[in-house]
Amino acid sequence: MKRLWPNSLVGQLLLVVALILLLAQGINSFLLYRGAQNQNLVEASTSAVARIAYGFERTTNDRSASRRGGKRSRRWGQLKFSPESAVGDDMRRLPELEARAGQAFANMGIGFSDIRATSIRDLTTDMTGYVIGANRGEWRNDPINRSMGGDQNTPETKGFVIISAQQADGQWVSIASAVRERTPLLVRTLLFQTFTIYLLMLIPLILLGRYISRPLKSLTAGAQSFQPGTTKALEEQGPPDTRELIRAFNDMSGRVTRMIEEKDVMLGAIGHDLRTPLAALRVRVESVEDEAERERMVAGIEDMNSMLEDILSLARLGRSTEQSDPVDIRSLIETVVDEFTDLGQDVRYQRGDKQIATVRETLVRRALRNLIGNATLYGKAADISVEKSGSSLLIHVDDDGPGIPEGKIAAMFEPFLRGDASRNRATGGSGLGLTLARAIARDHGGDIILKNRENGGLRATLILPVG
User: Fold this and answer.
1) pTM here?
2) Count of domains observed in the chain
């Protein structure tokens, strides 16, 4: 499942800004919607108050005539007179509307001892016939009224506001007013506003993000492909902070290149200065008459030469002039195995399928020699197998030795640390074999893994990318 959260800094910034804008617009929409709902209630209550004020005197006269035996007209929207309020105690009252209605009546010189207001979804049966604004759709849909400019699409009725006012004699006069829903226009306005804000803010942010991210991507690629002495200086571009970062990277790469060049010069001098006296010492040792002593001295000199070669190889790794070429790993393994079998070592390899990997052949051959050499040294024999796993090639070197304690496996890659504490090369070696082998593997984008086998012994796996 693809992650919704972007990986890039610019993408995360744009997503955060978009979410903040969406949250702000959501809050704004909620407040505007609540305001529109309140406005609808105020408009309905205003109509009710106006209807009471307009028809109060005439309705009072009609009521007096009715008491004298006259017949009162029963028109839709007439005021309701009753001894009890149409707004019961169990209804939720609206103090704000009550205060507005009281102020309006007072301004028109109409006095009421008590005013009650409520909002309901469905009209109660006792208020049927005492409603205003409920038949506007019929009026506007009439052909004559439409021809006079009436709006055919009248807003939908969403409820009713009931205003009930108590007269001085204790009688209550009540009227219900339909509440019209006008939010569709509000929703369209909010959607248009949100779309406009997103365009005005996100498009400049996208352009700014590309302006920032382009040099950062170039810097990332330069850092990933950095090779001392071969990497060109990056072009300084982007905002001032980014330019300063690129300038610092160029300065750092220059310093690293100079340090490595100085190191290579120093190592070359050390190698030359040490090999010359060792060669002279090797010649002088041949004149020693005691054969056993002479062999021990020759072994010591060979040990020093081998250690010197390992140190120089490890120090120069990454600055090799050898190019990576497609190599048949099967043939490379067979070449290394033949070297050991010619020396009488028990090394077995079952020839498998052809596997091609782009590597530096000399370095990979040396890494294999080190792994197989450790297997024959500590396990007396080595079994080699090759396995393809995805885009990686796994070269397993198994032995039947004592293995390595789990807590010490990671430490075995440290320089000069050996499984045998002896300084004798026949049992201990220089302590740089695994260090150098892992450095070669990682220089190719792979690695080396050590793992104890279930039936005893150790498995060293050389991982090489083949994709």
Assistant:
1) 0.47
2) 3
